[in-house]
Structures are given as C-alpha cells and as structure tokens.
Design the sequence.
C-alpha cells in the first residue's frame, strides 16, 4: 500500500509540474501577443501621420502650379509673340546700334550712326591697298659706266679725300648737262644743297622707298611736292659734290628703304 501511495504522489507531482510549465508558456505567449499588438498599432498611427503630411505637401504644390499655369494660360498667343519680338528688338537696338534719340510728337526717333562703320571700312580698304602695293621698279637715271660701286660694309678709295671711305650709292659716269631722269614714279620730297654731295633731289616712292640724285648742275625741271613719272626729266649732271670733286663727271645715285641706304643695283631693273 505504501509503495502505491508513493507512486501516486510522484505522478501527481509530475502532472502538476507539467501544468505549471504549460501555464508559464501560455502566459508568455499572451504577453508577447499583447506587446506585438501595441507596437503594430503605434506604427500604423505614425505611418498614417506621415502619409497625411506628404499628401498635404503634394496638394500645396499642385495648387500653386495650377495657379501659375492658369495665369500663363490667361495670356493669348499674340501677347506672348509680341513680348518676344519686343525683347529681341530691344536687344538688337541696345547691342548693335549707336543711336541718338529726339522727341517728336511725343515719340522717340532712332538714328543709326554709320560714321564708325564707314571709318572701319576705309581703314580696312587702306590696309588691303598697302598690302597689295608692290615695291617700285627702278631704272638707271642716266646711261653710263659705274665709276664707284655701293660700299656700305666695306671701304673704297676716294681720290678727293685721299683715303678709304664707305660709299652709300653708285657713281654713274655722265658728262655735265646730261639729263637726269626719275628712276621710278614718286613725289619730289626735297631739292637742297648738300655740303658733301652738292645739289641734290630726293624723290619719295611707295613702300618706304626713296631715291637720291646728287652732284647736279641744275634741278629747275621740278619743284618740291610735284609728282613725277618714271623717266621724267628732273635735273642735269654737274660737278657740285665737294667730297667727289676730283672724280670724273658723274651722277651720285642712292636708294633708301625706310631711310636706310641699300644697294641700288639690287633694285634696278
């Protein structure tokens, strides 16, 4: 009997333990369910509030855009085109025209200043002409042998000075009173008595060239400022050059480029 009671008591204790464990598990499940329900419900409220906030922003944007669009739609096509044309005309007037305004009968009159445009065109034309202008072609001013050649970078003997000197031109043999002709077309710059080379005529040509005729007898055939043609008579040969008075009768002839002497034989055709 005692053994049976003990066994019965043990079974009852095991059953009670199972009930306690099951009850604990059931309690934890209920608590977990309640917690999840509470959290889910608060999350839905927050999402609902956010959705409402976003909806209000979208509604405000749509209403403002609709107002702007309706105001633009209120304008006619002609008004829009006229506004664009007026803007373009104002830009053209302000940026490309130098205008002067005067009030006449309550209106404004615009006048285009074309002097600057014409001046620029003239400058461009002059530049083109200068670029297209060729160097003058020179010819011998008298016919004769070369007594003394051009010698700027070396020395030649001068019988008059009895020493070796430089020589910036050509001495061309010619009898006194021989006619001297313009070597090229140009304008008479000066007629003067040079202390070294006697009576001298200087003619200016294009592109910075000039020609010099010295040791002359007379230059009464031309005047300063006169335009002469190539081959036109300008003077006669003399013997007035003090630095070359001991030499044979001749014409002292020089060519200058930008006021610097050059070898005449390089330019004489």
Sequence:
């Amino acid at each position: 009997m005692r053994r049976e009671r003990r066994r019965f008591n043990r079974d009852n204790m095991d059953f009670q333990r199972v009930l306690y464990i099951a009850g604990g598990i059931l309690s934890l499940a209920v608590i977990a369910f309640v917690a999840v329900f509470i959290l889910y419900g608060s999350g839905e409220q927050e999402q609902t509030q956010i959705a409402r906030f976003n909806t209000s922003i979208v509604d405000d944007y749509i209403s403002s855009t609709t107002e702007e669009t309706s105001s633009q739609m209120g304008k006619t096509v002609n008004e829009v085109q006229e506004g664009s044309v007026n803007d373009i005309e104002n830009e053209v007037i302000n940026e490309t025209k130098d205008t002067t305004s005067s009030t006449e009968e309550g209106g404004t009159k615009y006048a285009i200043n074309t002097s600057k445009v014409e001046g620029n065109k003239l400058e461009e034309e002059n530049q083109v002409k200068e670029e297209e202008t060729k160097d003058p072609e020179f010819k011998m001013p008298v016919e004769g042998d070369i007594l003394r050649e051009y010698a700027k970078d070396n020395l030649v003997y001068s019988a008059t000075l009895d020493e070796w000197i430089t020589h910036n031109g050509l001495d061309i043999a010619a009898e006194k009173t021989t006619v001297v002709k313009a070597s090229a077309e140009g304008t008479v710059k000066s007629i003067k008595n040079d202390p070294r080379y006697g009576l001298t005529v200087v003619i200016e040509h294009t592109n910075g060239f000039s020609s010099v005729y010295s040791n002359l007898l007379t230059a009464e055939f031309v005047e300063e400022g006169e335009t002469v043609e190539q081959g036109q008579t300008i003077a006669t040969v003399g013997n007035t050059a003090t630095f070359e008075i001991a030499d044979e009768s001749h014409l002292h002839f020089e060519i200058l480029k930008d006021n610097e002497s050059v070898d005449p034989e390089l330019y004489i055709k």
Summary: The two ends are 163 Å apart (CA to CA). The longest strand covers residues 209-218. The chain has three helices and 14 strands. The chain has two domains: 1-74, 146-266.
